[in-house]
Specification:
Elements (H helix, E strand, L loop, with lengths): L8 H12 L5 H8 L3 H13 L12 H10 L1 H4 L4 E9 L17 E4 L5 E6 L6 H7 L1 H15 L2 H17 L1
Parallel strand pairs: 2-3
Antiparallel strand pairs: 1-2, 1-3
Helix pairs in contact: 1-2, 1-3, 1-7, 2-3, 4-8, 6-7, 7-8
């Protein structure tokens, strides 16, 4: 009997990488999101089975991805809060939402080279903070997704609008 396919959190990082570089080779995709080649390949398979990729292509079905991120990501991959640590700002603490929302205590991905101290949250993938440090566009998208995972109504609304615009123009 076949198993029920299920997305993994790192699959969304792969999907966002494909939004930024549609159809890229697996080697480049794996490198850009900080996963092994086999992990990137499996993620693409899960994304395809979930209907988040266009058939027979490594291109994201953007409207479906937006729908999932805005309405489902907080339930499928809830944000797990942790202690205050140094790290990389995310959600409403990230530059993408700076000034768009009232500032509160910083939220960060734990990272040794982080220069901001704040409440930690576990990123979608262990490799996401490092990949985001090397790719500002990916960082922007991941921070918006974290605002959707973690935020209240206002944060989710603002992050959702910016995310829709970003995914439409990427």
């Amino acid at each position: 009997m076949a198993k029920q396919p299920a997305l993994r959190p790192q699959d969304l990082v792969v999907a966002l990488g494909l939004v930024l570089s549609p159809g890229q080779r697996f080697e480049a995709l794996a490198d850009s999101v900080g996963l092994s080649l086999s992990a990137a390949h499996r993620a693409v398979g899960r994304l395809r089975r979930a209907g988040l990729l266009l058939p027979d292509a490594r291109r994201v079905h953007r409207s479906r991805l937006v729908e999932f991120l805005i309405h489902g990501v907080r339930y499928a991959f809830p944000a797990v809060r942790g202690p205050e640590v140094p790290g990389i700002p995310t959600a409403w603490s990230a530059p993408v939402l700076e000034g768009a929302l009232p500032s509160g205590p910083p939220v960060v991905w734990p990272h040794a080279s982080g220069r901001v101290r704040g409440e930690s949250i576990i990123p979608l993938s262990d490799t996401a903070p490092e990949a985001a440090r090397h790719n500002p566009q990916l960082y922007r998208l991941l921070a918006l997704v974290d605002a959707l995972r973690l935020g209240q109504a206002r944060e989710k609304q603002v992050a959702g609008l910016i995310l829709k615009q970003d995914l439409a123009s990427a």
